[in-house]
Amino acid sequence: MTKKHKDLLVVFLLYVVAIALAGVVFYVFKDFSLIARLFIADIAAMLFIYIMSLIINNASLYDPYWSVIPPVVLIFAFLYSGQALNLPYFLMMLAISFWAIRLTLNWIKGWHGFSEVDWRYLMIRDKAPKLYFLTNFLAIQLFPTLIVFVQILVGIHIFEFTAALNLVFVIGFLMVIGATTIQYISDEQMRRFRTSNQKEKKCIDEGLWRYSRHPNYFGEVMVWWGLYVMYIGIAKQLDIYIFAPISMSMLFIFISIPMMEKKILKTRPEYKLYQEQVSMIVPFIRKEDEVSTYQKES
Question: FRET partner for 296 with CA separation of 20 to 30 A, picked from 8, 54, 100, 217?
Answer without folding.
Answer: 217
